[in-house]
Write a structure and sequence with these properties.
alpha/beta; Rossmann fold; Biosynthetic Threonine Deaminase, domain 3; 2 domains; 8-stranded antiparallel sheet; 6-stranded mixed sheet; 20 helices; 18 strands
């Protein structure tokens, strides 16, 4: 291994990456550092010209091809970031490129490759499927195959990131956290760090549903997964490389797995510190770092996470925003059973108190009791249990749904439906100011004879919360109800005659 380290150290020191890549900044994450009680640094590979580290390895490989090989052209397989690196490099070197990408590749990435002049071929549902097809094209069209990770020149190109980290931070470093797909990035980074400063821990991070490298290291041989998760498309690799497996097994000190929710939370963490939006693979290092710090109870240590990509589809942000609070354990989700009687809804709100409500869904179902879905902002999992205890003390049966995927992914958006007990119901859309006490002000001014039969609210992060309320108001109270609405001071619109309400909720 010492001979291997000397070889890779020489390769990395002589890597040709800076014709196209930049020395990315190593930035201190002030908010993360304060929250984790450690010194957190982010190696900002998301700031490369193609918003990913992949440019380094691709160009280092292609710049070493002969003029005859460049004239024939190159082919690669990629979920997106390597493809952009190859296309960018090919434009710089003036050669033809064929890029095979899985059909699951975000459109943002495939469009970016086309914009760089790459000929995109969509094939298969994972990187491994695209890889096999790319090899067939290489043989049939006499193209040079540029591997995304299992090639010494590609590995050496990625290793320049480790070289920059040690040059940029010459003080003690406890651990460096690196996302793993096929293993090219961690192989290069670990090779340089272990050759120069072997006391630094190198920790690999994989998704729980795409952990081919971790399984391979544990088994002592390369394991091929039957399937991989696609949330982090940049690391969705079924079969790691031979060389990357050899290097990772020998050089990487530890591993940690993360799930989608924790990665969503890490994307939010990165945004709060940098105002940049990482893709899932790009935030895995942060997610793994947070988990590792908690598991090992690290304090006052210097840790580095490589933010390796920012090719995020805009449409994914909706999912990321909704799951980030759960991943950070900043949201508790409950189903609470309350008696179907006047005042019980207000009593439930009093138990919730000044806690920030993220979601509130309720629809009258029968005359005895009602089931309310409540989301509350929390500081950690312990607070969720404390809230559940408070609800129990007040006579409200509740179930903590923080680990219930059915509830988080589907049921929370499906609560409600028709009711056969909603006579005299008036339906209104309100805009409440997003501040504590707004809902209690509404309930306190409402006549005690009026019953809330429907309530739906979700925190959208805006200054005003959009709330749908159904209130049962007897016909002889309609004038008083109109006075209540006008004196409340909240913007609203009546929807009682809306056909959608009539078709699905009434």
């Amino acid at each position: 291994m010492q001979k291997t380290l000397r070889d890779y150290l020489q390769r990395i020191l002589n890597a040709r990456v800076y014709d196209v890549a930049v020395e990315s900044p190593l930035e201190r994450a002030a908010k993360l550092s304060a929250r984790l009680s450690n010194h957190v640094w982010l190696k900002r590979e998301d700031t490369q010209p193609v918003f990913s580290f992949k440019l380094r390895g691709a160009y280092n490989k292609m710049a070493r091809l002969s003029s005859e090989e460049l004239e024939r052209g190159v082919v690669c397989a990629s979920a997106g970031n390597h493809a952009q690196g190859v296309a960018f490099s090919a434009r710089r070197l003036g050669c033809r490129t064929v890029i095979v990408m899985p059909v699951t590749t975000p459109k943002l990435k495939s469009d970016a490759v086309r914009a760089l002049g790459g000929n995109v071929v969509l094939y298969g549902e994972s990187y491994s499927d695209a890889h096999d097809h790319a090899l067939e094209l290489a043989e049939s069209q006499q193209l040079v195959f540029v591997h995304p990770f299992d090639d010494p020149d590609v590995i050496a190109g990625q290793g320049t990131i480790g070289m920059e980290i040690l040059r940029q931070h010459q003080h003690p470093i406890h651990s460096v956290f690196v996302a793993i797909g096929g293993g090219g990035l961690i192989s290069g980074v670990a090779a340089y760090i272990k050759a120069v400063r072997p006391e630094i821990n190198v920790v690999g991070v994989q998704m729980e549903d795409s952990d081919a490298m971790i399984r391979s290291v544990r088994e002592g041989k390369r394991i091929k997964l039957d399937d991989v998760g696609l949330f982090s498309d940049g690391t969705a690799v079924k079969h790691v490389g031979e060389e990357t497996f050899r290097l990772t097994r020998e050089l990487v000190d530890d591993f940690v797995t993360v799930d989608s929710d924790s990665v969503c939370a890490a994307i939010k963490d990165a945004f709060e510190d940098t105002r940049s939006i990482l893709e899932p693979a790009g935030a895995m290092g942060i997610a793994g770092m947070k988990k590792y710090v908690a598991q090992h109870q690290l304090t006052d240590e210097t840790v580095v996470a490589i933010t390796c990509g920012a090719n995020m589809n805009f449409d994914r942000l909706r999912f990321v925003a909704e799951r980030a609070e759960v991943g950070e354990e900043r949201e508790a989700l409950f189903v609470v059973t309350i008696p179907e009687e006047r005042g019980s809804f207000k009593r439930l709100c009093e138990v919730i108190g000044h806690r920030s409500v993220t979601e509130f869904s309720y629809r009258m179902d029968n005359a005895e009791q009602a089931h309310v879905l409540v989301g509350l902002a929390t500081t950690d999992r312990k607070e969720a249990e404390a809230i559940r205890s408070d609800l129990t003390d007040q006579g409200f049966a509740s179930i903590n749904l923080v680990d219930d995927e059915l509830a988080k992914q589907h049921v929370r958006y499906m609560v409600g439906g028709r009711s056969h007990h909603s006579e005299d119901e008036q339906l209104y859309r309100f805009e409440f100011p997003e501040r504590p006490g707004a809902l209690m002000r509404f309930l306190s001014h409402m006549h005690p004879n009026w019953n809330i039969s429907l309530f739906h609210y979700r925190n959208q992060g805006a200054d005003y919360g959009r709330i749908l309320v159904g209130i049962q108001v007897p016909k002889n109270d309609r004038d008083a109800f109109k006075d209540f609405i006008s004196n409340l001071g909240y913007r609203c619109a009546e929807e009682t005659q809306n056909p959608v309400y009539r078709l699905f909720l009434r």
